[in-house]
Amino acid sequence: MGSSPACPAYDGRKCAPKAKDYPVSESAVTDAGERDPRHESRESLNIFARIALFVRQVISELKRVVAPTREEWINYIWVVLGFVAVMMTLTFLMDLGFSALTKLVFGK
């Protein structure tokens, strides 16, 4: 197959975008160092040390969380409202159908 400047040695699969194509804040990019709690071993620790390690790992992971932007929140809200509207419509139509079927089978 051919190749292009954007995707050398193209083999029919979609090229993965380069890292610079993704908008990532500097706080989201971290360097996992030796003191990272995720890499601590829990072997031969008592129960309290394991709980403390767990809490440190949770805090470490929470520092990596990136909150959605305002535009993302608005998009999520519209998706949820759309899903709820579809489910309400589906429920309403099923209720009408079952009601008609019940009246047909059992009469008024």
Describe the overall structure.
The structure is a single chain. The chain has 108 residues and is mainly α. The protein has a domain at 68-108. The chain contains two helices and no strands. The protein has helices at residues 47-63, 70-106. It starts with 46 loop residues before the first helix and ends with a helix.
SSE layout and pairing:
Elements: H1 47-63, H2 70-106
Low-confidence stretches: none
Distance between the termini: 70 Å
Strand content: under 5%
Q: Given the helix and strand composition, which structural class is it?
A: mainly alpha
Helix content: 40-55%
Largest sheet: none
Cα shape: elongated
The counted number of beta strands is 0
Number of H- or I-type helical stretches:
2
Using brief descriptors, characterize the structure shown.
single chain, 108 residues, mainly alpha, 2 helices
Task: Write a compact overview of the structure shown.
The chain is an all-alpha fold and 108 residues long. The protein has helices at 47-63, 70-106.
